[in-house]
Task: inverse folding
């Protein structure tokens, strides 16, 4: 399980770095379409980590509840 978490964390880092690079690229570009891509990239840069945190938090809560039920 530890290896899976490490691999997923590494994938998350790569995705976030890609989002940051695309945000910078879209910010310096002058095309009208790149403005929409910039907004989408900024949105994804904020939302993806928040969603990942929320999913892991909910997963930990549900796993903790299952562990307590088995102990009863």
Result:
């Amino acid at each position: 399980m530890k290896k899976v978490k490490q691999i997923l964390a590494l994938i998350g880092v790569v995705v976030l770095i890609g989002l940051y690079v695309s945000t910078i690229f879209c910010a310096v570009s002058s095309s009208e379409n790149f403005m929409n891509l910039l907004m989408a990239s900024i949105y994804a840069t904020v939302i993806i980590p928040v969603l990942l945190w929320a999913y892991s938090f909910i997963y930990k809560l549900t796993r903790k509840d299952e562990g307590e039920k088995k102990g009863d």
Remarks:
- The first helix runs from residue 2 to 28.
- The two ends are 25 Å apart (CA to CA).
